Amino acid sequence: VWTCEAEDLYMFEMTITDDFSKKEFVSILPKTRCLSPLESLNTMTQHNLESTTGTLQLDLDSSDLFQLLDDWYFKSTNMQRPTQYLQRFHANQNLDAFFYLPDVLVKSHKNCLETLLDPGSCPLQDPSYGELQNFINFLNIQLESCENSIFCNLQEDWANLRFKNFVVKFMIHMAKDFSTRSIEISDESLGKTQPEISERRKWESSHHPYIFFNNDGVTMSFFGISIDRNHNLINPDTGEVLEKNIMSKNLYEQLKHQNRQDQIPIFNMNFDNLSEQLKLRVLCRVLGVETENLKDPYNIDGELVDPDPSYKLTSDNVKKLLAIYMRMKANIPVVCMGETGCGKTRMIKYLCDLIRGGKPVQNMIIIKVHGGLTSESIKQKVKRAIDVARNNEAIGVQMTCLFFDEANTTSAIGTIKELMVDRLNDGEPIPKSSTLQFICAVNPYRTHSETMIKKLENAGLGYHIKAENTRDTLGNIPLRRLVYRVHALPLSLFPLVWDFGTVNQTNEKQYISQMVKNVSDDLKLVSSEESSL
Asked: CA–CA separation, 79 vs 137, rounded Å?
């Protein structure tokens, strides 16, 4: 590579794969290799290093440099608070009197990574820095809310109950929903050019217990939490023990006592049996918009305004709503995967309407993505969305969402990735103070059945070109064999995709009943006519 000026610098960014050839052009250039957290820890152990302040030259016979854990990130609150709590938690110390110590750093980079990568901490065995960041961002947000909560300032009544130990234990359990990969994309259509994803969670095949410290600082919301007589955390549907001895008997009784005046039970709550108003109140409490959605702002216990009475709130879709909200709150990009028409857009609109609290503003901007959408068009829409978010924040709407629908149908998917993962718009950073959040929905990567492929090939319509000769492919799969005509996702979006699965029979019946009721209301049918419908 020749430079025209002394100040010129050429930089290439690339992913090293197992089949990387030393004959490739970039192999002759000096390289700085960015190691994963586990690789960084192993390198520090191998070379007897405790901390690093920059890039390292580990081999004197090579000019290659290695980047381990960034020192500025190590010193950040995001990394220090969770690590301080986890170290004391693993040492079985009582955390009730402990608060984050901003002036006392964890011992070293190595010690920090050992704590975070412990199997009892991060649920991933070999996370990328992005995945580890999502894990600790979530923990940091929740632990900070815990410290600001009234529950952490009731010293006499709560002495020796180990409330914070319970919180940290539960947060680790919750973090599986926020940092464990869930997609199965590589199975059908991405070919050998894409990474293998080995750790997967299907939404409908796993339980989702949540604890939220609400914005009022006084209440907590326990969602999907069932405690048996032995104080184990269990799956209410199957009776499976998810965590033994999740809390002590004294803590259990104290929490129930604290909750005695509330209409919403703190444990073993059957959400689907609650009234519509109580369901709405549970949701608004977590979102911090209970007051904003009151019909009468002077009656705190009064009726709430439902932004869309035709939308049926079930335990399943409320958990999904809260999962989306917590990801955005922890700055974890939200990528939803699901079939067209399964309700992704309407769910996010309902969430945004609640956050808006009845104010006459637009806080959800939808971009209908298609094959003709260009990067330049996306960039212009994002600039306008940043201005909208700024104006919304000025009148008290704390979150504005830009929603990319069917994001993987455009070749400009790389631009969407840059916005969501890097928060850059055409190379320009989106202001850190901006309340604009990005959500995208992607179509699943699914091939037609062999029977359907044969029918399509026999029908003609462009199938005169043999599948093995077409250049229009996704990995090794011809695009025409896919149910949805989609483009490959950038690699950094893979860990962020959440396949929220399919609706179970109980929830499906509830949705159908709600749709029948909506039609009945529109037609003004009497009860007997509605029953026959």
From this structure: 8
The 10s digit of each residue's pLDDT in 187-222 is: 333 443 443 333 444 545 566 778 888 777 677 788
Helix (H, G, I), strand (E, B) or coil at 123: coil
Q: Residue written as tokens 């500025």?
A: 72
Predicted local distance difference test score (pLDDT) of residue 187: 35
Beta carbons of 271 and 282 less than 8 angstroms apart: yes
The token duo for 251 is 């803590």
Q: Indicate yes or no: pTM above 0.90.
A: no
Beta bridge partners of 241: 234
d(C-alpha 43, C-alpha 22), whole Å: 23
Report the run of H or E that residue 316 belongs to, with start and end: helix 315-329
Query: What is the DSSP code string of 158-183?
Result: TTTS-HHHHHHHHHHHHHHHHHS---
- Please state whether 230 falls in left (phi above 0), alpha (psi between -120 and 50) or beta: alpha
Give mean pLDDT, residues 56-63: 82
Say which residues have a Cβ less than 8 Å from residue 182's Cβ, sequence separation at least 6.
Answer: 200, 201, 202, 203, 497, 498, 499
SS3 content of the chain, % helix, strand, coil (to 5): 40, 10, 45
